[in-house]
Design brief:
single chain, Serine Threonine Protein Phosphatase 5, Tetratricopeptide repeat, 10 helices, elongated
């Protein structure tokens, strides 16, 4: 049996975040419910692996049927987290597995809004190809185009206009 630190309940989530694939797989074999057990922020292992772009862990968790659109305590899904970090390979995997392209977090921000504001062109193109709404507005009424323009991301502004 794998020895784990009982005082550190975050260990599996840290493993997902830091890309410790083989050790995490052992834990997942020992506990067949671990992949769907949230941490204190209501994040799953999938959230942490997506945030840091660990494709192998994301693929493995999806193969175990990890809930792909699970929202954390701030309503961030794995897709939104991947988009905020510019993780285009993870965004592509999640979208191909049916992640909700229109999911929104606590501020009503979508993955597309984050991609536009942070100048993640590859992520923006993937989201638009899956039908993300370019006119989606957050709680303040800002659309992805507003977010891109406010950050000076002219190329993103042009990209979102061309792909409509």
């Amino acid at each position: 049996m794998l020895k784990t630190e009982s005082k550190n309940a975050k260990k599996p989530y840290d493993m997902a975040y830091n890309g410790h694939t083989s050790t995490l797989k052992v834990l997942l074999e020992q506990d067949d419910q671990l992949y769907k057990r949230p941490d204190e922020n209501d994040r799953l292992l999938l959230h942490w692996a997506a945030l840091r772009s660990h494709e192998d862990i994301v693929a493995h968790l999806i193969s175990l049927s990890s809930p792909i659109d699970h929202e954390d305590d701030m309503k961030f899904t794995p897709l939104i987290l991947a988009a905020t970090s510019g993780r285009d390979k993870i965004v592509k995997i999640l979208l191909n597995e049916g992640a909700n392209v229109e999911a929104r977090n606590f501020g009503s921000h979508s993955a597309l809004q984050y991609a536009a504001s942070k100048n993640w062109k590859a992520v923006l193109v993937l989201l638009l190809a899956k039908g993300a709404d370019v006119n989606v507005a957050n709680k303040r009424g800002a659309t992805p185009l507003h977010r891109a323009a406010s950050e000076g991301n002219a190329e993103i502004c042009c990209c979102s206009r061309r792909t409509k």
